[in-house]
Design brief:
The chain is of the alpha/beta class and about 300 residues long. About 50% of the residues lie in helices and about 10% in strands. GO terms for molecular function: ATP hydrolysis activity.
Length: about 300
């Protein structure tokens, strides 16, 4: 790939939620502050929502890494769970050894007993649930019942929900009003501003080992900000394609043309209608990159 060409130690714009690349811009820094404060206060339910690609999963992983020394953390990345599956998943995440033939009532009782034991050992338990908008009504109710468990002073388990805006729509339903009323802290992740996009791009390149003058000028960063609408995932996709284009041509500088090609090749981006590359298809651009790489290597 283009790692050695641009003197990088790792891929700077992958879509995997690598916490090494966490960029504490205002929205994510504020969200982390809300989360840590709410957990310290012992709140039962905490909620973070944001559009697709705004960095909720990365924030969830960052929180997990940050609190795991002080809390007993259970993490559920898959929220497509029935109430029964939720109970089993919690038991597994808590490290419980339970008889798989147990009925649901007995399983719930064992979980409750184990949570009490952890509380007596001064262990604070936090359950992190990603993609929480996918939780069914029945599973949300089962989750609420878990937060009924408390001593005179403390909740036995705290729950943090990460989800898309559809989670807010679901929680607005009267079916889950009891759960909704227990959410004392919430935060809505916004998209990045143009200046934040520029900082974000340079930050990821630096973390990946780039230590030369900026590859992306402010002008080019503004183009990416406009096309991506400040969504981190789209910024990553565009920047990765831009670096591929430059590498394929044997160029160690980024141009507007590289940006336009990447935009034309990326779904969900705001297109420039005056762009002469508007009609380029994914296949055409892929062929162009492969051909350019082949030609460039012939020069070596």
């Amino acid at each position: 790939m283009y790692l050695s060409f641009f003197n990088l130690s790792e891929m700077p714009f992958t879509l995997t939620p690598n916490t090494e690349f966490f960029c504490a811009l205002e929205p994510h820094h504020e969200a982390m502050q809300v989360l840590t404060t709410a957990l310290e206060m012992g709140e039962g339910f905490i909620k973070v929502t944001g559009e697709v690609g705004t960095g909720k999963t990365l924030l969830c992983r960052k929180l997990l890494n940050q609190i795991e020394e002080d809390y007993f953390v259970a993490y559920l990345p898959n929220s497509y769970l029935s109430p029964e599956e939720l109970r089993w998943a919690i038991a597994v995440e808590l490290g419980m050894e339970v008889d798989k033939t147990l009925d649901q009532q007995s399983l719930s009782q064992q979980i409750n007993h184990y949570l009490l034991e952890l509380q007596e050992d001064n262990e604070r338990v936090v359950l992190l649930i990603d993609e929480a908008q996918c939780l069914s009504w029945e599973t949300l109710e089962a989750l609420r019942l878990f937060t009924n468990l408390e001593t005179e002073t403390d909740k036995l388990i705290q729950v943090v929900l990460f989800g898309q805006p559809e989670l807010d729509d679901k929680l607005a339903n009267s079916k889950v009003r009891q759960l909704r009323q227990r959410i004392s802290f919430s935060y809505s992740l916004r998209a990045m501003t143009a200046s934040e996009v520029i900082y974000y791009i340079n930050h990821r390149l630096q973390v990946a080992g780039f230590n030369q003058p900026p590859l992306f000028s402010n002008r080019l960063g503004l183009k990416i900000a406009r096309a991506s609408r400040g969504i981190p995932r789209l910024v990553n996709i565009l920047c990765h394609k831009v670096l591929l284009q430059a590498y394929g041509e044997g160029l160690n500088i980024i141009t507007s043309r590289h940006i336009q090609l990447a935009i034309a090749d990326t779904d969900d981006c705001a297109k420039y209608r005056s762009n002469q590359y508007w009609g380029y298809s994914v296949l055409a651009i892929s062929v162009f990159v492969i051909a350019a790489i082949w030609v460039w290597r012939q020069w070596l």
